[in-house]
Predict the 3D structure of the following.
Amino acid sequence: MSLAVEEISTITAKGQTTIPKAVRRALGVDYGGKIAFRVRNGAVTVVKADESEDPAIESFLGFLGEDLKRRPEAVKALSPDLAKRIAELTKGVNADLDEAIGGDVAI
């Protein structure tokens, strides 16, 4: 049987809150640690963030997977013109996909 922890935390005028010590301890996170808020069917869960996964990507890939199951005929190859345009638009663009995004990001 797992231990249930419930703590109450106040939200500030800036939309911030303190994660109570008992919750941080239960999640195994401390100063500088990352947590993920997951909203599903009107309920929110807080989990220790797996820094290798982006929850938005996880959700998007799940959506794509379901759509592919429902409509496999919708998958089409890129046209040569579109592939060429993509190559032209991204020529010389160096992107580090592991680089942190600066500032606030709304998901």
In short: The helical segments are 21-27, 55-70, 80-90. The mean pLDDT is 85. The chain is about 30% helix and 10% strand. The longest strand covers residues 35-40.
